[in-house]
Amino acid sequence: MTATADKTANGTIDPVTASVIQGALENIAVEMGHKLMRMSYSSIIRESEDFGAALTDAEGRQIAETPQSTPLQSGPIPGYVAGIKRIFAERGDDFAPGDVIIHNSAYHGASHGPDVAFCVPVFHAGDLVGFSVTTAHHLDIGALTPGSCGIVDAIDAYAEGLQFLALKIVEGGRRNEALWQMLRDNIRASDLVVGDMDAQIAAARIGADRLVDLLDRYGPATISAAADFMMDHSERLMHQAIADMPDGSYSATTHIDGFTDSEDAARRDLPITVTVTVDGSDVTVDFTGTAAQVADRPINMPLEGTTDCAVWLTLKSILLDSAIHGHVPQNSGMTRPITIIAPEGTLVNPVFPAPTIARFCTGNQAADTLMKALAQAVPDKVSAGVGNLHVVAFSGLRGEEHWVHMEIHEGCYGGRPGKDGMDAVDTLYANTRNNPIEDTESHLPLRVRRYELRDDACPPGRWRGGIGSVREVEFLEDGGVSVEGEGHVYAPWGFAGGRDGETARMSFRPQRGNERGLPSKLPNLATRAGDRIEVVGPCGGGYGDPRERDPALVLEDVLDGYLTREQALADYGVVIGDDLTVDAAATERTRAR
Questions:
Q1: How far apart are CA 570 and CA 37, in angstroms?
Q2: Which residues pair with 249 in a beta bridge?
Q3: 448 neighbors 438 (Cβ within 8 angstroms)
Q4: 88-to-63, 111, 163, 174, 325 alpha-carbon distances in Å
Q5: Distance in angstroms (rounded) separating the CA atoms of residues 591 and 583
Q6: Phi (first) and psi of residue 56, to 5 degrees
Q7: What is the DSSP string of 529-592?
Q8: Cis peptide leading into 350, omega within 30 of 0?
Q9: Which pLDDT score is estimated for 68?
Q10: In this structure, what DSSP letter does residue 96 have?
Q11: The dihedral of CA 373, 266, 153, 539: what is its sign?
Q12: Of the candidates 537, 385, 525, 575, which has an alpha carbon nearest to the alpha carbon of residue 453?
């Protein structure tokens, strides 16, 4: 211990010790994540892993996060801590041992209201040394309709559910029973939701205890020096990756559907514009030109907690691909070379009380637009356009008791150099797992009638776009459904000669009455037993000239049922005979023409 302390006397530390401590910090975050997942009640945490867990230092700088969480859960944690500290300073509150703070303000670092954080301040030898934080998506927080997604008709932040602005839900080790009772009285399916909250607190306390053990072993000076060392290391890696790009400015614009059934043009066909400026080893991401905020609809993205995470995640995944760079420590150092410009009052930086609860798909599109801009600078590192998602809330009432359930209906990726787009997966900063049908049907009055890949929807490219899924769900009891989705109007973009992808769609099939198409955003719709909703996901864009695709891969797609022989000829110029083999000579002649 003395030798280590000597190394840190001047703020320096050797790389081996720093790496050992970094591994220990990451293991703490991993344990937090696994414990939270195992203790949770709801499938969105237990199965889909829509949660986050991270450690920060006393300043709120992230020093480790759990890798099995979604980027949109762990990524905002420094913002949560900054928001909590800001509110505490304004109120004159102090952190104390035994405190647990509940926080979900979208204008104080949180991604949106349902992603509730529980923050445990960590003390060592009487000093505040850091924070142990868990976040998770909760199935209901008392919004105007059941569930915590699909609240697409919320007119302001107050219509989105309960707001927790850095409240001590446990103070000095004593539970604030009045606050807990308020939660139970105002949240549907409160046993489920409050059970998940208790799991979050337990996981955050585990993280705090493990961090104290690590501090006992190495001492605060060594831990602090190791954290600084690893943040500087991550910063250097990002600086170098940016420096490898050609200097210049690169712009792209995509659109979101908005509310296609609205008579107000300001709610429809909304542009997201990104300009990336590379200057040496620094990069600026400018959203000037993006549509104005929609003041009375909740598709706006908080700058801190959503927009910034979309930028960081995209840049890291493209410039520091783990397949090339290996493990890169995820911490606050990685974001230092990145400057974000987001004009106030736009979709990417709304002004309170503009609602934000349905910001999910908008943020995913912002990340996709950034990737389209980066494609001009690093075309060999991007995918073509990504298929966006649908987030569906199912709910019902049994006597006086609510049940709620949330499904993230996956999108897909576009083609990328050397690889086809991934089929039927959550994309970009979503990254949650598909919820098993068996779990849904064993716990809820729902029956999944279809779950399969789309037919005849395989976007052409040298590397084809990913294929979206089809899921049809039947209600076995009366209930309701609401959806926040995207991509019904604008198809994912093709790149370098690849074709555009396919748009999404939804249909409602009542047991009595005619089937009807649905927009991408659906406020709560009452359903009866026997009614069905079908969600058809988009398909990603193709990458590269389809006529350059290996005929063997085209044949494989035909054999897998993704293409017909006629499509193989029309889209790829590949002739497949009646014996289901490639006619090489005929293919060569066709492609030559």
A1: 48
A2: 277
A3: no
A4: 22, 19, 16, 19, 40
A5: 12
A6: -125, 165
A7: TT-EEEEE--BPPPBS-GGGS-HHHHHHHHHTTSS-HHHHHHHH---B-TTSSB-HHHHHHHHH
A8: no
A9: 80
A10: -
A11: negative
A12: 537
Instruction: Please report where in the chains the tokens 């943040």 appear, as a residue.
Output: 231
List beta partners, residue 115.
137
In contact, 395 and 405? CB cutoff 8 Å: yes
Tokens of 441: 């049907």
When computed from its CA atoms, the radius of gyration of the chain, rounded to whole angstroms, is 25
Residue 47: φ, ψ to 5°: -105, -50
Q: What was the pLDDT predicted at 435?
A: 84
- Asked if residue 76 lies in contact with residue 135, where contact means CB atoms within 8 angstroms, the answer is yes
Asked whether the beta carbons of 339 and 315 are under 8 A apart, the reply is: no
Tokens, residue 403: 């049940």
Amino acid, res. 452: E
Neighbours of 198 (CB within 10 A): 15
CA angle, 381 as apex, 375 and 385 as ends, to 5°?
55
Q: Give the Cα separation of 177 and 161 in Å (integer).
A: 20
Chain centroid to Cα 492, Å, comes to 18
Distance CA 553, CA 96 (A): 62
Dihedral sign of CA atoms 251, 256, 258, 261 in order: positive
DSSP for 30-80, please give it.
HHHHHHHHHH--SHHHHTT--EEEEEEETT--EEEE-TTS-HHHHTTHHHH
According to the model, what pLDDT value does residue 7 have? 43
Positions in the chain whose pLDDT score sits under 50: 1-10
Cβ atoms of residues 395 and 188 within 8 Å: yes
What is the SS3 assignment for 442? helix
- The residue whose two tokens read 């003390």 is 123
Closest to 51 measured CA to CA, from 199, 259, 180: 199
**Selection from 576, 486, 471 nearest residue 533 by Cα:** 471
